[in-house]
Amino acid sequence: MGKYPKFFMEHFQNPRNVGEISNPDGVGTVGNASCGDIMQMFIKVNGNRISQATFKTFGCGAAIATSSILTERIKGSTIDEALEISERISKEILSELPEKKIPCFNLATNALKLAIEEYRCMEVGLYEKLMKQAKKS
Ligand code: FES
Question: For tag attachment on the chain, is the N or C end more exposed, with fewer CB atoms within 10 Å?
Answer without folding.
Answer: C
